[in-house]
Specification:
The chain has 92 residues and is an alpha+beta fold. The chain has three helices and five strands; from the N terminus they run ββββαααβ. It has a single domain, classed as Arc Repressor Mutant, subunit A, CATH 1.10.10. The strands form two sheets. Strands 2-3-4 form a three-stranded antiparallel β-sheet. It is globular, with a radius of gyration of 13 Å.
Length: 92
Amino acid sequence: MQLGSHPRRAARILVHQGDEELVLLDPDNGHYYTLDEVGTRIWELCDGGRSIAEIAGALDEEFDAPPETIRADLLELLEELSDGGLVLDAGS
């Protein structure tokens, strides 16, 4: 995914909010993923309507971290979620 991509959550993914983490389950293969606070916020923002650059901008406003770190971490997580089929590029 690139900064101009518009990630959206895959509809088939089951989601459970725990006390301190979000658990995602892919019922097709039984794999599950856990997301911390920042990962959860990224998941929430992946609605297909925002570009990755726009998501990074929202995270810049919400979290106290250097913008370069936020973008790098965002791209890394989205790549992992994309590789697992949990998020898709709404533009493709």
